[in-house]
Amino acid sequence: MAIRRYADDLRKSDKFNHKGKIDYEISMKTNIYDVNFVRNYQVVNNLALLYDKVKPGKGDFLNLSVGSHEVSLAVSEKFRSEVDELIKNEEILHTKENMVAITISFSGDFLKTPGILYMATRKLAWENINLTEIVSTMNELTFVIEKEDSIKALDVLQSFFDEEI
């Protein structure tokens, strides 16, 4: 009996209890170069040079996350040579090319919906889609994944938002 009640509670917890309409848009960028390296003051300053070259308004992609000990950079592959030149003397932790970035842009009452980011991430994990990078801002969530998983991930996320929200 306790297991049956627990199963019922789990089913209920999978549904959102959101307070308003959540509008979203899903976009996908291909040919992403993903690199991670040890953080230092100079490399962070050098990466500022990318902001003059990368033009998101013209379709370029750039996500830079500076952690306590490392830096994560996902950028359109056409800027790979510039990135490699900027980080040539750095301690590289990981590089991956030909990746895909799937971005969910939220609007509406998104911020009043607890667990939505968790649920989207969980749905991808259940479908055995490995997330190389997760980049989050106030209204955007970006997953950097392998190219071969991109169509499946897009379908999973689209069906999640169509069914759950």
Automatic annotation (TrEMBL):
InterPro entries: ACT-like_dom_sf, ACT_dom. Residues 105-165 form the ACT domain. It comes from the Bacteria. PROSITE patterns: ACT. This is ACT domain-containing protein. It comes from Bullifex porci.
